[in-house]
Design goal:
mainly alpha
Length: 90
């Protein structure tokens, strides 16, 4: 029983509120309102370089920015998962 519960919670959104679960397109709109496509590319490039860097991100960049972007990307992934699972059509 516990294994089945873990599978259920593993697929459940953790960052989305009920309104966002009901309409995951809100998350997509919010994400791209906060970050334009060029800014998203830049932040992803920063992640890439931080992962490969010899020094810590605290020495080379702004860890708070990377963490904030990470949280928004996590919400975006959860919203995309809901859309895929529900096969929601705009």
């Amino acid at each position: 029983m516990a294994e089945n519960e873990n599978l259920l919670t593993a697929n459940a959104p953790r960052r989305l509120n009920q309104e966002e679960i009901n309409n995951p397109y809100l998350v997509i709109t919010e994400f791209f309102t906060f970050n334009g496509l060029p800014e998203c590319r830049e932040e992803l490039r920063n992640w890439f370089y931080a992962a490969l860097a010899d020094e810590s991100i605290a020495e080379t960049g702004n860890p708070a920015n990377l963490f904030s972007f990470y949280e928004r990307v996590e919400k975006l992934v959860e919203a995309a998962h809901i859309i895929k699972e529900k096969k929601i059509i705009m």
